[in-house]
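the two lines:
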Amino acid sequence: DADVTQTPRNRITKTGKRIMLECSQTKGHDRMYWYRQDPGLGLRLIYYSFDVKDINKGEISDGYSVSRQAQAKFSLSLESAIPNQTALYFCATSDPAGRRSTGELFFGEGSRLTVL
Amino acid sequence: QKEVEQDPGPLSVPEGAIVSLNCTYSNSAFQYFMWYRQYSRKGPELLMYTYSSGNKEDGRFTAQVDKSSKYISLFIRDSQPSDSATYLCAMSFIQGAQKLVFGQGTRLTINP
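prediction for all of em together
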């Protein structure tokens, strides 16, 4: 089983709809992240959370919100989806005490979202 | 100008070739440098990690950092078809992943 699980893996929706992408992890890490990946733009950070009570905006948080329901669960919501939010979304975790504590992210397999 | 620039490719080479993947950056404060590998339909995974300048070798992979030129490289020796993937450079000026800046990624194909 994957250590970082994202659902759904694929989703097609229409402009204006509310969408939630869910992430759960079994790695026991406190830190969780949401990224989006676009061709030619690489990975960009949307939100991150260092624990259940700590939520922080990333580089591109406008139009998104998150919820950290538990140490192992971190959800990303698009309140009113728009076509330029069509992208591949990744959840990731990190362990600040890990052997390669700087920069080692453990990614899920991604959620492909298409907004028509 | 992007903080981190990476040639998106695609790059196609024959099996056994030496591959060189590169990134340039503009922020002289970056001191933690990483290479991630991403297979098709998968999330990225950390391949190499380097702090500050110098070289680091791991099997067929060598990561090189030249802070004076703001340039990092990943070399793959004796390339294999299983090395076909997208390679993303990433860097940060602080410990922790929350300030990690990624390059655009280079798609690499190794032809048998």
